[in-house]
Specification:
Blueprint lengths: L3 H6 L4 H8 L6 H6 L9 E8 L5 H4 L17 H9 L7 E4 L2 H9 L2 E11 L4 E5 L4 H6 L1 H4 L4 E2 L4 E2 L6 E6 L7 E5 L2 E3 L6 E5 L6 E5 L5 E10 L11 E4 L3
Parallel strand pairs: 1-13
Antiparallel strand pairs: 1-10, 2-3, 3-12, 4-11, 5-6, 7-10, 7-12, 8-9, 8-11
């Protein structure tokens, strides 16, 4: 029987990567923790967007996935079983972004995106993990399943570098916790744009307060990523 490392080394295509993640014999916790690199972990806030629309009405709707449920859309089978064993749910209400919020991804210069609103209601929490961008891959699987896969970058080899960011759709409220190890993002303002090293950063979230915590999660490539790494805070205006 092949070891997990041997199986990983055999990944050649995007479809191979999905098959690997869906392998029920994989120890998901050990595999996921192997992605952590404390020397290359962290987050930063390179931008703010003014005049964002309100998300209040949208997050009051029925979500596609509820915070307290487990769903194969956002988890592999072994990941789901681990969460179930330790009494975790999805960790946030997953809402489909409408045109108002899809516009934000375009404003920031994203291409080939996966865009969702992650609203964490009071009392919800998400288990510690490192991202695998399996949602983005699943959403585009028919187009890219036969493309080569880069196991070091954990993304399709033919793609430009993939970025992931969160856009705050409301101000921070006390009790809202977002841990990008070893630091915490806190006291954010509506419109703040937070990028993080998704390949190497363990992160977890909880809402111990009394207000909803809506974030727009954007995953994709950037037309020009130079502003993300400029060391300055860029100002965007939603109305431009």
């Amino acid at each position: 029987m092949l070891t997990e490392k041997e199986k990983w080394e055999q990944i050649a295509t995007v479809n191979d990567y999905i098959d690997f993640l869906e392998d029920k014999t994989i120890d998901w916790k050990t595999l996921n923790e192997s992605f952590i690199d404390k020397e290359r972990s962290g987050f930063w806030v390179p931008a703010n967007i003014k005049n964002l629309p309100s998300a209040s009405e949208l997050i009051d709707r029925q979500p596609a996935i509820k915070a307290n449920e487990l769903n194969r859309t956002t988890m592999t089978q072994s990941e789901l079983e681990l969460h179930e064993k330790h009494n975790y749910g999805n960790g946030y209400d997953r809402h489909e972004a409408d045109e108002r919020f899809l516009k934000i991804a375009s404003l920031l210069g994203f291409n080939d995106t996966s865009v969702w609103i992650n609203n964490q209601p009071p009392g919800a929490m998400m288990a510690r993990h490192v991202d695998t961008i399996s949602c983005l891959v699943h959403e585009k699987i028919d187009e890219i399943k036969n493309d080569p896969f880069d196991t070091e970058l954990r993304q399709p080899a033919n793609s430009k570098p993939i970025y992931r960011c969160f856009v705050a759709l409301d101000d921070w409220y006390p009790g809202q916790i977002l841990n990008f190890e070893p630091q915490f993002w806190t006291e954010w303002k509506k419109g703040d744009v937070c990028f993080f090293h998704w390949r190497t950063t363990a992160h977890s979230t909880a809402n111990t307060g009394w207000h909803h915590r809506p974030l727009l999660k954007i995953t994709g490539t950037l037309k020009d990523p130079s502003w993300v790494h400029s060391g300055k805070i860029r100002s965007f205006d939603y109305n431009d």
